[in-house]
Amino acid sequence: MRKESFQDLKPTIWIGKRGATSVMIDEIRRQLKSRKIVKVRWLRNTEVDPESIAASAGADLLEVRGRTLVLAERRSRSPGRDSRNI
């Protein structure tokens, strides 16, 4: 999916006043398996750290705009491309 098309993607996960709970992270993981890309929105009065949500869900953070973030399923790296692999 190209970056220009993220705007057309509808949010499938809404983070409420409780913030990003473990149940919410599990739902993000479940949707990433089936959809590959997930758009998440949150309320104005909710503090959200997009990078920590991506790390908790094991996803790549593609874009953050306002109160919206886009996550993609993390691609598995091939053993030869990992710089720590000697």
From TrEMBL:
<dbReference type="GO" id="GO:0003723">
    <property type="term" value="F:RNA binding"/>
</dbReference>
<dbReference type="InterPro" id="IPR001890">
    <property type="entry name" value="RNA-binding_CRM"/>
</dbReference>
<protein>
    <submittedName>
        <fullName>RNA-binding protein containing KH domain</fullName>
    </submittedName>
</protein>
<keyword id="KW-0694">RNA-binding</keyword>
<dbReference type="InterPro" id="IPR035920">
    <property type="entry name" value="YhbY-like_sf"/>
</dbReference>
<dbReference type="InterPro" id="IPR051925">
    <property type="entry name" value="RNA-binding_domain"/>
</dbReference>
<feature type="domain" description="CRM">
    <location>
        <begin position="1"/>
        <end position="84"/>
    </location>
</feature>
<dbReference type="Pfam" id="PF01985">
    <property type="entry name" value="CRS1_YhbY"/>
</dbReference>
